[in-house]
Design brief:
single chain; alpha+beta; Glucose Permease (Domain IIA); eight-stranded antiparallel beta sheet; three-stranded antiparallel beta sheet; lipid metabolism; zymogen; phospholipid metabolism; pyruvate
């Protein structure tokens, strides 16, 4: 189905299939599977069975399903699977705003809306581009490994900032943040890369968070506590401001 056009008029052909495993996770799956077989060979069943279940868990963690990405210039899609845990008015990180000496401009200074998406170990951890455009910055920052659900994780945890600029000049910054269990942010892109909306940009191993900084004058189309899907869920529509309310039930 990858690359096929699908629409709301029934165009396209789809069928269910097992999601593929991203190459980044195959080596971990092979290691745990080999250990499981080795312990089973020596009849250490109390160790072999947990390792077998761990193998399944590792493969499930690194699953990389195809996504049907909305194709509209006005939409900002979610870069991550997970739970919308915070929606706040904040100043963008300095790494996305200050002159970094590269000759490329950063985000304008001033308050913007930040949407924080918390990814549990059960979520797909492949992150995707919220808009199409050129990667202007990829900035890695070392840090702590606190609970990614905490507000201060945006400033204190290990993180990686990515800045994408559309052909019309609009820019979106987002941040991959390592969590309590996560210990590695794996980038798939570098400055100068041209991305399509929804294209894979990286992953974070074993539980984490992604922050998205919306352009000024744009409000979220998602609610606090909502489950979102990377590459498919619309986070916002550029230039649209409207209060949306929901009831947990």
């Amino acid at each position: 189905m990858a690359g096929e056009i699908l629409d709301n008029k029934g165009r396209g052909d789809v069928s269910w299939s097992w999601p593929p495993i991203h190459p980044e996770g195959r080596k971990f799956g092979l290691i745990t599977a080999a250990l499981s077989l080795l312990t089973a060979f020596f009849a250490w069943e109390t160790i072999a069975w947990p390792l077998a279940f761990l193998t399944l868990g590792v493969l499930a963690f690194f699953r990389d399903p195809e996504r049907v990405v909305p194709q509209s210039d006005d939409l900002i899609v979610s870069p991550a699977d997970g739970l919308v845990s915070l929606i706040q008015e904040v100043d963008p990180p300095a790494e996305l705003t200050v002159d970094d000496g590269s000759g490329t401009r950063g985000l304008p200074e001033g308050k913007v809306t930040r949407i924080s998406i918390f990814m549990s170990v059960f979520d797909v951890h492949i992150n995707r581009a919220p808009i199409g455009g050129t990667v202007q910055r990829v900035v890695y920052m070392p840090g702590k490994f606190m609970n990614a659900d905490l507000d201060k994780a945006s400033e204190e945890n290990e993180r990686q900032h990515i800045l994408i600029e559309r052909p019309d000049g609009m820019m979106i910054g987002f941040t991959q943040i390592a969590g309590l269990v996560a210990r590695r942010i794996v980038p798939f892109v570098k400055p100068g890369d041209l991305l399509a909306v929804g294209q894979r940009v990286g992953l974070i191993r074993f539980g984490s968070r992604v922050d998205v900084y919306l352009p000024a004058g744009t409000d979220p189309k998602v609610l606090l506590g909502q489950k979102v899907i990377a590459g498919e869920t619309m986070l916002a529509e550029v230039g649209t401001q409207k209060l949306i309310e929901g009831i947990a039930q």
